[in-house]
Every structure is written in structure tokens, then in C-alpha cells.
Description:
The protein has helices at residues 26-33, 42-55, 57-60, 98-116, 137-140, 166-176, 191-203, 224-231, 237-248, 276-286, 291-297; strands at 12-23, 71-78, 82-93, 124-135, 149-155, 180-187, 209-213, 234-235, 261-264, 267-272. It is an alpha/beta fold. It folds into 2 domains: 12-136, Alpha-Beta Plaits (2-Layer Sandwich), CATH 3.30.70; 141-297, Molybdenum Cofactor Biosythetic Enzyme, Chain A. The strands form 2 sheets. It has a 6-stranded mixed beta sheet, sandwiched between helices. It has a 4-stranded antiparallel beta sheet with strand order 2-3-1-4. Strand 2 (71-78) and strand 3 (82-93) form a beta hairpin. Helix 6 (166-176) packs parallel to helix 10 and helix 7 crosses helix 8 (224-231). The mean pLDDT is 90.
Amino acid sequence: MGMIDVSNKPDTLRAAIAEANVTMSKQTIRLIKEGKSPKGNIVDAASLSATMAAKRTSDLIPYCHPIPIDDVKVSVTIGTESVKVITQVKSIWKTGVEMEALTSAAVAALTIYDMLKSVDDSISIESIRVIKKEGGLKQMYQIQDRKLRAGVLVTSDSRRKRQDRSGKLLVDRLKKEGFDVTYYKVVPDSVGTIKTELTMLCDELKVDLVLTSGGTGIGSRDVTPDATSNILEKNLLGVAEILRAHGQRRTPSSMLSRGVAGVRSKTIIVNLPGNVKGVSESLDSLFPGINHAFEVLENHKHS
């Protein structure tokens, strides 16, 4: 029991809209419209309290993460027998903001209740609900309808398949992401061998994605990026940059990775580190965002 660990998730734009309805008598509505509410302007008070509540949600709800709030908008509408509050919260972070929007709307409704309870015994908070939420990688990038195929290539002079952990992690994760893993091999740190394997995967097997593991550092036998660059037709600089940026926030030595990413024909190749921790972190930043690339390669429109 406790907070959900979101430390490995990348930041994305998140938004949520919530609504609260406060019912009351027509006489009370008339007081509000005439500016005779006993505690002052309920619209201003509700808007202010809603904004404050969105920013303090993690202080009130025990398992909510404290998150950076980028925007709060509040709309207060006075009807014939009710006051409706709609709140919208935005954040660029790792988890959704529906709790912030709900808390915002709830506190605004409680503020209205407090300001009018002395003149209306019938006042009631009828509903508080999320009416829309958006953002997050799963919503942004869904995998294509067809089964995508992937290959895993581990580069190591000393490692054998039965000793390999990073490659097996890649295979398992790719399957969870919906890929059909049709190729998995451990090869030596040799430019010629790596080039041959990658070319075969792209030109003969025509897999959609190749993930390599190992040989991305600055050692004399770290040649995977060199071999990969040699056979690429287009570079995906942004992919390599985001992998390093994501890793650097967790492991300071990530800056030393020379891993590259790119396209050959309709196959995407991405170099990942050789250690299990580095592979796991890289996959968290790679998926599901990379899935959109397969649609682009099929000349589908950008979403």
C-alpha cells in the first residue's frame, strides 16, 4: 500500500476537467444574482478556492503525488436552482491530474455551501465527477492494428545467450508492448558482424524494429553505434537524445553513451546500453512513443 512509483515514466502534457453541482432554492439564487450573499461574491470565492485546492491536492489526498500545476481554469455558472463549477487542470508531468481537477471542483462546491448555508437549509452538493481527461503516452500513441515484428541483437565478446540478461529483458518487454519477436541473437563486438546482422534484419527479414544492447560506450570494443551508423539511411536524432536525457536524470554516466537510432528502409534500429538497468530505463522512455514512427513509415497521417 502506498504511492505508485512513477520515477521511470517520462513527462507528458496531462489535462483533466471536473464538474461539481450545488443545488439550492430559487430564493438563494436570487440573492446571489442581486449581490446579497451574506459572505460576499460566491463566484470569486469559489474560483479562488478551486485554484488553491488544485495546488494543494497532495496535502489532502494521501497517495497523490505533489505535482507541478501549469494551469487552473475555473468556470462558475449560476442557473435557476443550482450553481455549476467546472475546473480544468493542466500539468506536464508523469501522472494524470484528474484528482487535482476533482479536488478543485469539490473545494469550490464546499466553499459555495459554506457561504450560503446560513440562508438556505436545502443547499446540497449533488455531484462531483470527471468529465474529461487527456494526455499520457498510452492515449497518444497506440500500436498499429497489425502485429509488428521485432529483432533483438546483443553485442558482447564475452556474453553467451544463456548468460544474457539484457537481451532477454528486451524480448520480454517487446512482447508486452505487442511485438512479435522473430529474432534474438548474441554476437561479438565486431563492426563487420554487427553490420551484417543489422542489414539482414532490415533487408531480408524486414522486421519493423531492431533493438541492440551493448557496445554503446567509449571503450575500444564499443563499436555498435559505428556499425549501426554505417548502414542507416536516416538518423533519428531525437530518439537517441531522449534516451540519453531520460537516463541522465537517473544515472550520471548516461552522458557517455554513443548509442544511435535511425531507419533503414522501413526498419527502425535503436542502440541501447548493455546493462539491465540501462536497458530498462531506456525502454521506459522509448515506449509507447516510438510506436507512432511505424505509422509514419507507412505514410499514414501524423496524429
